[in-house]
Design goal:
Number of strands: 2
Helix content: 25-40%
Largest sheet: 2 strands, antiparallel
Structural class: mainly alpha
Shape: flat
Strand content: under 5%
Order of helices and strands: EEHHHHH
């Protein structure tokens, strides 16, 4: 049997009891600051363009101290150093370290001789600690010759291969995938 829809007069489960949209607030209409200024002079042209010119005088008289030659703000003034006040601490701790002394020619020759004689024993880090300089400096001053570099790289590659032999199947597969992806870079 067909039932006609019931009208909702009370609280019923079929009636909508919530708002479908929120009421919109009308946009704010702020007064025009140019037209409402008591000092403004409004001039309207009489031709068909209906242009309006509004002139407002500056809010204050310019001060002789507000020019760029004599700035009033201490932020605009040039910095002055006073010998009585100490300087603030440095930001980076590495700035506190004194620069290493310059290495003489004799020391550079000694580094080259040791590095080329036994590169396995006298590595860059070991020579850097011995002569109080950086490993990067050692690599620039006493770079290995190409055959020695290849031999040294071959030894390292053999050590890495021995370590890779102990890897499990999953780790080896992930490393192979990563290597293959790197080839397409």
């Amino acid at each position: 049997m067909f039932r006609p829809p019931r009208l909702c007069f009370g609280l019923s489960s079929r009636c909508r009891t919530y708002a479908t949209r929120r009421p919109e607030k009308p946009p704010a209409r702020f007064p025009d600051p140019l037209k409402n200024d008591s000092n403004a002079v409004v001039t309207t042209l009489q031709d068909d363009s209906n242009l309006t010119f509004i002139y407002r005088p500056p809010p204050s008289v310019p001060s002789p101290h507000s020019t760029s030659l004599d700035p009033a703000s201490p932020l605009l003034k040039s910095p002055t150093r006073s010998n009585g006040n100490p300087l603030p601490p440095l930001l980076r701790p590495s700035s506190y370290k004194p620069e290493p002394e310059r290495v003489s020619r004799e020391v550079i020759e000694k580094i080259r001789q040791l590095r080329l004689s036994e590169p396995g024993t006298y590595s860059r880090t070991k020579l850097a600690k011995m002569f109080n300089c950086t490993p990067n400096f050692i690599s620039r001053v006493a770079a290995l010759r190409r055959p020695q570099r290849k031999q040294f790289r071959g030894k390292l590659e053999a050590e890495h291969a021995a370590v890779r032999e102990r890897w499990g199947e999953r780790k080896a597969t992930v490393a192979a995938i990563r290597q293959k992806r790197r080839e397409f870079w």
